[in-house]
What does this fold into?
Amino acid sequence: MADIENWGDATFEEKYRSLMGGMTPEAQKRSVENVVHLCQCSKCPTRAACGEEDLVFCILGKMSHPAEQKGCLCSSCSLTKTMSLRWDYYCLRGSALELSDLKPSE
Ligand code: SF4
Ligand code: SF4
It folds into this structure.
């Protein structure tokens, strides 16, 4: 379990369990509002090329528009460091939860 003493070294899976594990799917979706200002997707060439309007794909999962990889800015997003995200192209590959070692119910 990740806590304030080991947060820097904790994995995404440990942090997810601590922060979001007990949340309903609806509450998890609402958490998007708290991080949307951090999200870099609005400046991303992959998203711009396909006319997508959603953001925060690391939580929401794949976008609805088909798209080609034209670059991903997630590595420069502070949420990547804060949550120990270790993937990219969430808009094409799915959410961090889906890409992680966690099962959907965890
Ligand atoms: S990690 Fe990527 S998808 Fe998630 S908030 Fe940051 S820029 Fe957006
Ligand atoms: S997840 Fe990555 S590739 Fe997709 S829109 Fe966001 S920054 Fe761009």
User: Anything to note?
Assistant: The CA atoms of residues 70 and 78 lie 21 Å apart. The radius of gyration is 14 Å. Residues 7-99 form one domain. Helices lie at 12-20, 25-35, 45-48, 57-60, 78-82, 90-93, 96-99.
